[in-house]
């Protein structure tokens, strides 16, 4: 079978490998779509610290089940599924509390171990989710959107609240979408005006603010001086994360969705005077995946507009570089097998 391996930074190689054999509790799946995300691009570029090469990338997957044993979900060969790529230990303190998304031994497919950029792979059967009623494309973006759904659940957004979402990339867009579906008024903040216009149509964001243009004043004006009760930062940019505190209302909360391999610092008085709740959001759980699958099935997510670029498996290596160029207007690129 064909497998694309990231041999070292900036180099993919198409290889011929043998079809893996599932062990107990695993299923054999045939990969149909692979979504490309920022993590993959960082890994390809060599900017992902502690990343080990060679590695098969790909954690945003839709697939067809080829072989599966008896399983609790009643999945059978031929079913179309998405993959929950976060492999948790099941026994650590986080797992014991049901917070499998932040397992102490977290191993993510396509990051810490080989992912789905290949024709077939084996995966724990309990990490497959059926996506009946969804297309193969839609099944492949469930994971990416689940990150946003999880952050919104962490934020415990209630109807009528104002949520500021910083960063209008694929993760930020997912945050905006699920904040809207939770009844929030959404303000999008980014530096790319074209992307902000997309937020207005797609999420749809109620207001957009360009960070290059007195953003604090604009956000104060929109909220009548109150500022948003929830701020979610999906930039993974240390400067943005540090300046996010200023946009939080008194009594409000700040959620870091994007992460950065750096120290960030902030003014304690700015934090303290607000009695701010600050939290991180990591990965997603089965509950978030289920919410995303339902919302797509119910027609609440325009997945067609979200997927802007695609390539066949054989063209992927030559096309990849283009997807890293923001000039191409890429939001989500998908590889088709
Ligand atoms: Zn991803
Ligand atoms: Zn664990």
UniProtKB/TrEMBL annotation:
Superkingdom of source: Bacteria
UniProt xrefs under Gene3D superfamilies: Medium-chain alcohol dehydrogenases, catalytic domain, NAD(P)-binding Rossmann-like Domain
Transmembrane segments: none
PANTHER family: L-GALACTONATE-5-DEHYDROGENASE, L-THREONINE 3-DEHYDROGENASE
InterPro entries linked: ADH-like_C, ADH-like_N, GroES-like_sf, NAD(P)-bd_dom_sf, Zn_alcohol_dh
Keywords per UniProt: Oxidoreductase
Chain ranges of the Alcohol dehydrogenase-like N-terminal domain: 24-131
CDD domains, per database record: Zn_ADH7
One Gene Ontology molecular-function label: oxidoreductase activity
Name the record gives this protein: Zinc-binding alcohol dehydrogenase family protein
Domain Alcohol dehydrogenase-like C-terminal: start-end pairs: 170-296
């Amino acid at each position: 079978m064909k497998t694309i391996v990231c041999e070292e930074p900036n180099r993919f190689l198409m290889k011929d490998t043998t079809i893996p054999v599932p062990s107990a509790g695993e299923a054999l799946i045939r990969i149909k779509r692979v979504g490309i995300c920022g993590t993959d691009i960082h890994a390809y570029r060599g900017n992902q610290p502690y990343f080990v090469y060679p590695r098969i990338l790909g954690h945003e997957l839709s697939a067809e089940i080829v072989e599966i044993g008896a399983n609790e979900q009643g999945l059978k060969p031929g079913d179309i599924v998405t993959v929950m790529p976060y492999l948790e230990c099941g026994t650590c303190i986080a797992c014991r509390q049901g917070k499998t998304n932040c397992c102490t031994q977290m191993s993510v497919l396509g990051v810490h171990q080989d992912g789905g950029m290949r024709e077939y792979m084996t995966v724990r059967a309990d990490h497959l989710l059926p996506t009946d009623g969804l297309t193969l494309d839609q099944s492949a973006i469930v994971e990416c959107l689940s990150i946003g759904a999880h952050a919104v659940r962490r934020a415990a957004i209630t109807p009528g609240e104002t949520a500021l979402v910083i960063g209008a990339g694929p993760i930020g867009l997912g945050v905006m979408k699920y904040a809207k579906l939770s009844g929030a008024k959404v303000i999008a903040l980014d530096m790319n005006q074209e992307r902000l216009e997309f937020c207005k149509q797609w999420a749809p964001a109620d207001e957009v603010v360009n960070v290059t243009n007195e953003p604090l004043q604009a956000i104060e004006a929109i909220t009548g001086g109150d500022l948003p009760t929830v701020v979610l930062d999906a930039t993974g940019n240390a400067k943005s994360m540090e300046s996010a505190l200023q946009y939080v209302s008194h009594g409000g909360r700040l959620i870091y969705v994007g992460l950065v391999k750096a120290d960030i610092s902030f003014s304690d008085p700015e934090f303290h005077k607000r009695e701010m709740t600050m939290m991180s959001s990591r990965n997603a759980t089965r509950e978030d995946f289920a919410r995303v699958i339902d919302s797509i099935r119910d027609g609440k997510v325009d997945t067609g507009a979200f997927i802007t670029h695609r390539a066949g498996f054989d063209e992927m290596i030559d096309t990849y570089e283009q997807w890293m160029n923001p000039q191409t207007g890429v939001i989500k690129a998908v590889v088709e097998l």
